[in-house]
Amino acid sequence: MIYDNVASCIGNTPLVRLSRVFAEKNVTVLAKMELMNPGGSIKDRPAKYMLEMGIQAGTINHDSHIIESSSGNLAIALAMICKLKGLEFTAVVDPKISPANLKMLRLYGANVVSVTQKDENDGYLLTRINTVKQLLHSIPNSVWINQYANPDNWRSHYYGEAREILGQINHQIDYLVIGASTSGTLMGVSRCLKEVFPAMRIIAVDIVGSILFGGKSAPREIPGIGASRIPELLSANEVDQVVYVDDYESALGCRRLIAEEGIFAGGSSGSSISAIEKLLPEIPAGKCILTLLPDRGDRYLDLIYNEEWLEMVKQRHFKQATDTHEEIA
């Protein structure tokens, strides 16, 4: 098949059995390889879907200037799709954006506005959102995609990878393990699969320092998982269990993937791998676990795959463990 453009190649990603990372366990662990989308991440799906639904609804036209708060995969995906559709795009980013992501945005021709002031949660998310709102008043014909509240975010996953999974698998899925951030992926995939597998348990993976499920706000380094603000899309009552991992555990999960499976994946993928490892003692033999690997590892060379960064989060990991032990004692 010859596709019309690169956006037509989004989706139809393979499902892979992780037979080496969990080789000694009597469970089946399957991973949807979303990192194989043309823009390098799962965010290609909502970027394309939200833009196309906006065009169909008439809220986006050929003069629209798209704005979004994102320092990572969604910004890159929007930049790619907006380039194909001839739309102006501005990404509101913060100082934690990786040099690789910033360079990719500029190569796609995106406008970049960087905030520097931290918000009340010692992060940048609220500052980024406030900046988006200011830009809506100053940029003519501007449209905020609003990944945090736009229902087409979760619908893109419901009608996208979740439907694909149902066509790829021929047996029961017992556990769905997905990293949470804007919650579009978590909500969309779980809602679709629950219709076919009503007994399936929904396991959300969150990062230490995120407040999504009642955690305490604290510094965290890996983008794409966790949040310092609860998104409007999140329906926590649809989640059966939350597993927390920290930056160091996530990095170890990524390094296990590349060492044992040859899969070069990003931070939230490692988070899910470490979460599954924590879950395994309570999962009966013969069960099937499904997870998603959202993005490629090349965007994390300065983070997860950098030895100095790994040593920094390692020290933080063991300090937190010591502090927790002392509090219990």
Walk me through this protein's architecture.
- The protein is an alpha/beta fold and 329 residues long.
- The chain has 2 domains: 6-37 and 161-318, Rossmann fold (3-Layer(aba) Sandwich); 44-147, Rossmann fold.
- Helix content is 39%, strand content 15%.
- It is built from 10 helices and 10 strands.
- It has helices at residues 44-57, 73-85, 99-107, 125-138, 151-158, 161-168, 184-196, 247-261, 267-279, 307-328; strands at 15-17, 28-32, 65-69, 88-93, 111-114, 142-144, 175-179, 201-207, 241-245, 288-292.
- It has a 6-stranded mixed beta sheet with strand order 1-2-10-7-8-9, sandwiched between helices. Strands 5-4-3-6 form a 4-stranded parallel beta sheet, with helices on both faces.
- Helix 1 packs across helix 2 (73-85) and helix 5 crosses helix 7 (184-196).
- The protein is globular and about 60 Å long.
- The chain starts with 14 loop residues before the first strand and ends with a helix.
- The model has no long low-confidence stretch (mean pLDDT 94).
